[in-house]
Amino acid sequence: MVVGVMQVEISIDWSSSLKDKRRVVRSLRDTLHRHHMVSVSEVEDHEILNRATLGIAIVGVSGGAIGVTLDRVLERIRSMADCELIHTSRELHHGWGAHFGDDRGEDEMGECDRAELDASLIERGEAQLERESA
Q1: Is the pLDDT of residue 125 over 70?
Q2: What is the distance between the alpha carbons of residues 77 and 60, in angstroms, rounded to a whole number?
Q3: pLDDT at 84
Q4: What is the 3-state composition of the chain as percent helix, strand, coil, each rounded to the nearest 5?
Protein backbone atom coordinates (compact mmCIF):
# COMPACT_ATOMS: atom_id res chain seq x y z
CA MET A 1 0.00 0.00 0.00
CA VAL A 2 1.22 3.49 -0.83
CA VAL A 3 -0.22 6.71 0.58
CA GLY A 4 0.46 10.02 -1.11
CA VAL A 5 0.10 13.10 1.07
CA MET A 6 0.40 16.64 -0.22
CA GLN A 7 0.02 19.99 1.50
CA VAL A 8 -0.72 23.05 -0.61
CA GLU A 9 -0.99 26.66 0.38
CA ILE A 10 -3.18 28.84 -1.81
CA SER A 11 -3.78 32.57 -1.90
CA ILE A 12 -7.24 34.01 -2.54
CA ASP A 13 -6.29 37.67 -2.97
CA TRP A 14 -9.75 38.98 -3.83
CA SER A 15 -11.45 37.37 -0.81
CA SER A 16 -13.00 39.92 1.55
CA SER A 17 -14.74 37.49 3.91
CA LEU A 18 -14.53 33.96 5.25
CA LYS A 19 -17.61 33.21 3.16
CA ASP A 20 -15.67 34.07 -0.03
CA LYS A 21 -12.74 31.94 1.09
CA ARG A 22 -14.91 28.96 2.03
CA ARG A 23 -16.68 29.10 -1.34
CA VAL A 24 -13.32 28.80 -3.13
CA VAL A 25 -12.07 26.05 -0.81
CA ARG A 26 -15.32 24.07 -1.15
CA SER A 27 -15.28 24.41 -4.94
CA LEU A 28 -11.64 23.34 -5.14
CA ARG A 29 -12.19 20.42 -2.75
CA ASP A 30 -15.20 19.15 -4.72
CA THR A 31 -13.44 19.56 -8.08
CA LEU A 32 -10.31 17.71 -6.95
CA HIS A 33 -12.32 14.88 -5.43
CA ARG A 34 -14.57 14.53 -8.47
CA HIS A 35 -11.77 14.57 -11.07
CA HIS A 36 -8.92 12.88 -9.21
CA MET A 37 -10.57 10.83 -6.40
CA VAL A 38 -8.42 12.42 -3.69
CA SER A 39 -9.40 13.44 -0.18
CA VAL A 40 -9.06 17.15 0.55
CA SER A 41 -9.36 19.07 3.80
CA GLU A 42 -8.48 22.55 4.99
CA VAL A 43 -5.78 21.89 7.59
CA GLU A 44 -4.50 25.36 8.61
CA ASP A 45 -5.27 29.07 8.30
CA HIS A 46 -8.96 28.56 9.03
CA GLU A 47 -9.63 32.16 10.07
CA ILE A 48 -7.38 33.94 7.55
CA LEU A 49 -9.48 35.57 4.82
CA ASN A 50 -7.15 35.32 1.84
CA ARG A 51 -5.09 32.17 2.43
CA ALA A 52 -5.86 28.46 2.82
CA THR A 53 -3.70 25.44 3.52
CA LEU A 54 -5.12 22.18 2.21
CA GLY A 55 -4.15 18.61 2.97
CA ILE A 56 -4.62 16.20 0.06
CA ALA A 57 -4.35 12.41 0.37
CA ILE A 58 -4.64 9.42 -1.94
CA VAL A 59 -4.09 5.70 -1.38
CA GLY A 60 -3.04 3.17 -4.00
CA VAL A 61 -0.73 0.33 -4.88
CA SER A 62 1.75 2.20 -7.07
CA GLY A 63 3.89 5.14 -6.04
CA GLY A 64 4.27 6.12 -9.68
CA ALA A 65 0.52 6.31 -10.28
CA ILE A 66 0.02 8.29 -7.09
CA GLY A 67 2.78 10.72 -8.13
CA VAL A 68 1.12 11.25 -11.50
CA THR A 69 -2.23 11.90 -9.82
CA LEU A 70 -0.69 14.42 -7.42
CA ASP A 71 0.98 16.16 -10.39
CA ARG A 72 -2.42 16.42 -12.09
CA VAL A 73 -3.94 17.79 -8.89
CA LEU A 74 -1.28 20.52 -8.83
CA GLU A 75 -1.95 21.38 -12.46
CA ARG A 76 -5.67 21.68 -11.75
CA ILE A 77 -4.99 23.97 -8.77
CA ARG A 78 -2.65 26.12 -10.90
CA SER A 79 -5.37 26.44 -13.55
CA MET A 80 -7.99 27.71 -11.10
CA ALA A 81 -8.88 31.37 -11.68
CA ASP A 82 -10.06 31.97 -8.09
CA CYS A 83 -6.78 31.18 -6.34
CA GLU A 84 -3.01 31.11 -6.73
CA LEU A 85 -0.72 28.30 -5.62
CA ILE A 86 1.88 29.65 -3.16
CA HIS A 87 3.62 26.58 -1.74
CA THR A 88 3.43 22.81 -1.93
CA SER A 89 5.06 19.80 -0.29
CA ARG A 90 4.42 16.10 -0.74
CA GLU A 91 5.39 12.72 0.64
CA LEU A 92 4.84 9.11 -0.33
CA HIS A 93 4.57 6.56 2.45
CA HIS A 94 5.08 2.88 1.67
CA GLY A 95 3.89 0.24 4.06
CA TRP A 96 1.65 -2.65 4.86
CA GLY A 97 -0.48 -3.52 7.86
CA ALA A 98 1.03 -2.76 11.26
CA HIS A 99 4.28 -1.71 9.61
CA PHE A 100 2.76 1.24 7.81
CA GLY A 101 5.08 4.19 8.11
CA ASP A 102 8.10 1.99 8.85
CA ASP A 103 10.97 2.03 6.42
CA ARG A 104 10.84 -1.77 6.45
CA GLY A 105 9.14 -3.49 3.57
CA GLU A 106 7.26 -6.77 3.72
CA ASP A 107 10.48 -8.69 3.05
CA GLU A 108 12.14 -7.06 6.07
CA MET A 109 9.59 -8.18 8.69
CA GLY A 110 11.04 -9.53 11.88
CA GLU A 111 10.38 -13.14 12.87
CA CYS A 112 7.96 -12.08 15.61
CA ASP A 113 6.04 -9.86 13.17
CA ARG A 114 5.88 -12.62 10.56
CA ALA A 115 4.63 -15.14 13.17
CA GLU A 116 1.86 -12.75 14.25
CA LEU A 117 0.87 -12.17 10.64
CA ASP A 118 0.89 -15.91 9.86
CA ALA A 119 -1.24 -16.65 12.96
CA SER A 120 -3.72 -13.95 12.00
CA LEU A 121 -4.02 -15.29 8.45
CA ILE A 122 -4.48 -18.86 9.72
CA GLU A 123 -7.25 -17.72 12.09
CA ARG A 124 -9.01 -15.91 9.26
CA GLY A 125 -8.71 -18.94 7.00
CA GLU A 126 -10.09 -21.28 9.67
CA ALA A 127 -12.99 -18.93 10.35
CA GLN A 128 -13.74 -18.76 6.61
CA LEU A 129 -13.69 -22.57 6.35
CA GLU A 130 -16.07 -22.85 9.31
CA ARG A 131 -18.50 -20.40 7.70
CA GLU A 132 -18.36 -22.24 4.38
CA SER A 133 -18.95 -25.68 5.95
CA ALA A 134 -21.90 -24.48 8.08
Answers
A1: no
A2: 21
A3: 93
A4: 50, 30, 25
